[in-house]
Write a structure and sequence with these properties.
- The protein is of the alpha+beta class and 213 residues long.
- The protein folds into two domains: 47 residues, no CATH class; 156 residues, Alpha-Beta Plaits (2-Layer Sandwich), CATH 3.30.70.
- The protein is built from five helices and eight strands, in the order H-E-E-E-E-H-E-H-E-E-H-E-H.
- The protein is globular and about 55 Å long.
Length: 213
């Protein structure tokens, strides 16, 4: 990064009022500091990411590392060794995708309870997986400042997920993940995802890719 570079900053939240307040503040005072780097905001644009109507197929990729921890009381179920006590285990490739899928769904259930209407079913209330396919890009360990003066090393992973929207409930669940992020510690910027291609019903793969690009 050098002085004069242009960058796009995405701010995601299921709370539209919060996003509106952030946008209003940036329009009124366009100076934005990230750490010790000063930026000037030239423009603010509202985005409404949507995985698409039922029948739409697409790919979602993690834009930031995904944090998934397996609680000790579930380790035996998955055949995972753990150090004992209350220590959760970071997901790693040797654990297979089964515990990863379960933890992602459980975490999204919590977000659904916070932000969705009570009468609507959550991810675990419906049949079917969130994603059709899970392609691991890489795992890596990074030091993360969790609170002021406290740093922890997290094992994170990056993924490419494929999906086919089954119905309106599935569409809502995937769009909630776009707004809130997947996995844990989203407030630290972890687990945020982006749609990288989308093919609507009746389109060919090539048409869908070109239309989305």
């Amino acid at each position: 990064m050098q002085a004069g570079d242009d960058r796009k900053l995405l701010v995601a939240s299921p709370d539209e009022e919060l996003l509106a307040n952030v946008a209003a503040d940036l329009l009124e005072e366009p100076e934005l500091n990230i750490g010790e780097m000063p930026f000037t905001v030239d423009d603010v644009t509202a985005l409404e990411p949507d995985v698409g109507e039922p029948g739409t197929r697409g790919t979602i990729e993690t834009g930031t590392g995904l944090l998934v921890r397996i609680p000790p009381w579930r380790c035996e179920e998955y055949g995972i060794d753990y150090p004992g006590g209350d220590t959760a285990v970071f997901w790693r490739p040797e654990h297979t995708t089964k515990p990863l899928r379960a933890q992602l769904e459980a975490n999204l259930d919590q977000k659904h309870e916070l932000y969705a209407h009570d009468h609507l079913p959550g991810p675990s209330d419906v049949d079917g997986e969130l994603f059709d396919g899970y392609e691991l890009i890489k795992t890596f360990a990074v030091p993360v400042t969790v609170t002021e003066g406290q740093e922890m090393t997290y094992v994170l992973s990056k993924w490419k997920f494929s999906y086919t929207v089954r119905d309106d409930n599935h569409r809502r669940h995937l769009n909630l993940a776009l707004d809130c992020g997947l996995g844990e510690r989203n407030s630290l910027g972890l687990g945020f995802i982006n749609i990288t291609d989308k093919t609507r019903p009746g389109e060919s793969e090539l048409e869908g890719t070109n239309a989305f690009a």
